[in-house]
Amino acid sequence: MYINVTLFIQVINLFITYWFLKRFFYAPFLASIEKKKEYKTTLQSFLSNEQETLNLLEQKKIDTLVDFQNFVANHYQIEDRQEKVILDIDIQERTPQEVEKMVGLAQQVLVKKVTHGY
Description:
This protein folds into two domains: 1-75; 80-118, no CATH class. Helix content is 78%, strand content 0%. It has two helices and no strands. The longest helix has 71 residues, at 5-75. The chain is rod-shaped and about 125 Å long. The termini are far apart.
């Protein structure tokens, strides 16, 4: 086996090709991949922060509802009745006592529904 000049030229050509590809092809390609990774991590952190904010707001909403239900339950005592309330549209023909009674019954029904959440 003879070693001649073409072997050295091929080795030099290989190194020049490697340097050329590394500088002009691999570097921008790797930079593009790194930029996409940075964008992905930034987006994931933003989304996790937004999810945490939504969870806090949802918990605040639930706490507010529970506080309101407790307030209504503590300030408005109602009796358990199995009566059905039928309201007439013609209130003008009713006496003030009947109107007061209907308003009271309607208030009790609304308080009961708010207190028990249905």
